[in-house]
Amino acid sequence: MKHDERTYRQRLDPGHLVTFQVRVKETDLLIHASRSMEDRTRELVLEQRRYLEQFIATYPEFATTLVPWARTGPAPEIISRMMDAGRRAGVGPMAAVAGAVAEFIGQALLEDVDEVVVENGGDVFIQNNGPITVGIYAGDSPLSHNIGLKIPELPKPISICTSSGTVGHSLSLGKADAVCVVSQQCALADAAATAIGNHVQSEKDIRNAIEEARRIDGLIGGVIIVGETLGVWGTVELVPLSGKNA
């Protein structure tokens, strides 16, 4: 997704948090936190990208395979998380890359602040000290920007990741306008959103896709949107939206 395509960011309301953006090559993060930490965030992104780029230089197929990657030996933690998420969801490890980066950055920033939201192309890592609502962008669907997921105050971080077969550049073998997955593991939520979305060619596939979602251990729940049709599973709370929402 090109930077100028992320128009959903114009609708964000960070409340009392400070907002800043960090871009490094293809990585484009929008962050809400208790205070601005652009330099620290850029250092963290460069570090994780270096791990990824070096691993891909050694194993080029890691960047292109659509099936789980078999572990071949020791690997950086971000690579291990991507491999594990891909294995659990039944997809290639790069299906988890955006979520894994958001997760690593968010966890590192929590060493300095007690609230942070890291958004990486629709994949969001959240640690909040009060309830927030995450709006769902579903392209041309009439439900786009009109519904959201309400996230209560939680003691531990939570993640919401979105895959789409009609919006953005990320590879999807399906045609869902949006598949949003909620999990405490951002890399897993990202990979699972891709895996679930691959099963959706039309609204008729939503029920079967939800059954596939239930087979992936570690998910809290999620939402599938195809046109005017919506399917929900797990422990999630949908709310109507109006105006600007986080």
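[next item in queue]
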Amino acid sequence: MIYIAIGCLAFVFLYAFDLNKIIFLHKNINICFAIGIALLAVSTTGVLFSNYKSFEVPVPSQLFFGLLSIIAMLLTLYSLFFALPFGKTYIEVEKVRPVVDTGMYALCRHPGVIWFFFSYLFLWLASGKIVMMWAGILWTVMDIIHVYVQDRWLFPKTLNGYDQYKRKIPFLIPNLGSIKKSIITLM
């Protein structure tokens, strides 16, 4: 259970990173994002390699769901670190920057949440660890709350054109139009 708590603590650091964008505007506080990601990685690894109770998963299923989990994790990382301008997003402390509305961010306003959810769903199915299921549910709910706060209060203040972007692109669940726009702009 300590690992689940560490994963929850990660979101405190992610909120500190967000607050820095609108209140403190201090470059050194941006390290909070890296700390939050590192805490999630440590807590996930801790749950995965712990001796928590689990159910039996056949090896072919472990490999299949393990591969799907890796793909979902890579899509999460792509959404956060490569689909956005890294320096402007995670290093600089500019008050306002342009919104990204192409590629992954044409799919929905917070595509990382979708891939985050699937990475933990598939990790649970690959590992058979019940605690991985509970960690994935809790951390996904915390992530949804986090992006709701970003969407409602942070991004309208820090991303130029965000209100117009909100009218065009769905919050979390892609629709047919956003899927088409995402595919077109990814190519």
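[queue empty]
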